[in-house]
Design goal:
Oligomer: single chain
Radius of gyration: 16 Å
Distance between the termini: 7 Å
Helix content: 25-40%
Order of helices and strands: EHEHEHEHEHEEH
Structural class: alpha/beta
CATH topology: Rossmann fold
Low-confidence stretches: none
CATH class: Alpha Beta
Number of helices: 6
Shape: globular
CATH superfamily: Formyl transferase, N-terminal domain
Largest sheet: 7 strands, mixed
Number of strands: 7
CATH architecture: 3-Layer(aba) Sandwich
């Protein structure tokens, strides 16, 4: 059974983190959510992690020792796979290299379109609709040192209906994200076992 760390941001709801942690707990994934790392205590994501009885560590990404502190926390928890869920900061290069091909992120669009710096949350759904796309979805990709640039691991798609709004598209894609991320971690659990 692989050990997973989930890095969350300070603003998200923690729904992808909760979907992964719940799938691990139920046995849907042959993995254990060993650690949630957040830049701030008391966030919605942290409260959800605590409710799921997942250990939480607070590490602020603007700290000068962040890379070393993060690597220490990951090593101490014997982490095999890192999942980013609402984590909006580029990971330090030392962490990317130490966990090469073992860091995943989920993006609310069909990469390589609509990715990169500044393309997150509602900005993505607004751009997809403005571009007149016929479908959207989500992408789970490996993390490197460039936003949304790593190789794709898994995608799920949905049609864009006439009259679709960024808000309605966001809801559809979020439902897909919860499924796609669990499936992607299942793929990685089999690879890393």
């Amino acid at each position: 059974m692989i050990r997973v760390a989930i890095l969350v941001g300070s603003k998200g709801r923690g729904s992808n983190m909760a979907a992964l942690a719940s799938a691990c707990r139920s046995g849907s994934i042959d993995a254990e959510t060993a650690l949630v790392i957040s830049p701030k205590a008391g966030t919605k994501a942290v409260l959800r992690a605590e409710a799921l009885e997942v250990p939480v560590k607070v590490l602020h990404h603007k700290s000068e020792s962040y890379a070393d502190d993060l690597l220490s926390a990951l090593a101490e928890a014997e982490i095999d796979l890192i999942c980013l869920a609402g984590y909006m900061t580029l990971l330090p290069a030392a962490v990317v290299h130490a966990y090469e091909d073992r860091i995943l992120n989920i993006h609310p669009a069909l990469l390589p379109k609509f990715g990169g710096k500044g393309m997150y949350g509602m900005h993505v759904h607004e751009a997809v609709i403005a571009a007149g796309e016929s479908e959207s979805g989500c992408s789970v990709h490996f993390v490197n040192e460039v936003y949304d640039d790593g190789a794709l691991l898994h995608q799920k798609r949905c049609p864009i209906e006439p009259g679709e709004t960024p808000e309605s598209l966001a809801e559809k894609v979020l439902d897909l994200e919860h499924l796609a991320y669990v499936e992607a971690v299942q793929i990685m659990a089999a690879r890393l076992a």
